[in-house]
User: Which sequence fits this backbone?
């Protein structure tokens, strides 16, 4: 397998605040892998995403990553004065792509997230789940090598969350993108991911491979056993 991300003994510290967000973190993510971080608030999960996304620099250690990275945020982060189509296409417009290429990419990914019929609507006319679908389409439209998701479904109701899980798995299977996700839900991480990194206090306690067949049954014995193992790691 080809490595896409490689962290070796990475630390991110904020000297002014005298806080170390993550310390001596090492992990690898392979091409087309779905990799998820779980852990309590403040353990450093989102810091790792910001480092991968180039939003913040590492303090020490080494980090190998591609330049082509995009992120889906918890809030959707859509521009309210732009239509769905404009939100998805504006980064490619800023990059100076041809109109034909922009239209092709926008249409492709709106279809993939089942929102082509909503392309001329504005964020205020969309549900929370639809806004997140637009955010996913926008992130994919720039053709990233790594797609980052920072607790993208945490503000949604359970039914909408289940729908978006299926949407995300469909996108992942069709595009074969490498996905790195932060989740507050152990169940979500096990349902979606190939590997789950369990974090506590700025470090990775263990990385577990999820060997369950897809589609996954959240009530199966193997699923529940893996949940219990992750919970025990977080409680220890």
Assistant:
């Amino acid at each position: 397998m080809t490595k896409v991300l490689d962290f070796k003994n990475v630390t991110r510290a904020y000297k002014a605040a005298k806080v170390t967000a993550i310390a001596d973190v090492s992990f690898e993510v392979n091409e087309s892998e779905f990799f998820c971080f779980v852990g309590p608030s403040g353990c450093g999960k989102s810091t790792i995403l910001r480092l991968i996304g180039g939003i913040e620099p590492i303090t020490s250690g080494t980090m190998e990553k591609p330049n082509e990275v995009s992120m889906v945020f918890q809030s959707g982060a859509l521009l309210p004065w732009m239509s769905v189509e404009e939100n998805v296409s504006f980064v490619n417009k800023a990059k100076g792509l041809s109109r034909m290429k922009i239209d092709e990419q926008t249409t492709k990914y709106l279809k993939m997230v089942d929102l082509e019929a909503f392309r001329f609507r504005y964020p205020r006319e969309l549900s929370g789940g639809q806004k997140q679908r637009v955010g996913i389409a926008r992130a994919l439209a720039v053709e990233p090598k790594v797609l980052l998701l920072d607790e993208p479904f945490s503000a949604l109701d359970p039914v909408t969350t289940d729908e978006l899980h299926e949407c995300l798995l469909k996108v992942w299977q069709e595009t074969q993108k490498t996905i790195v996700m932060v989740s507050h839900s152990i169940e979500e991480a096990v349902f979606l991911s190939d590997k789950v990194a369990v974090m506590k206090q700025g470090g990775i306690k263990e990385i577990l491979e999820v060997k369950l067949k897809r589609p996954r049954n959240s009530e199966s014995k193997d699923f529940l056993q893996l949940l219990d193992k992750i919970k025990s790691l977080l409680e220890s």
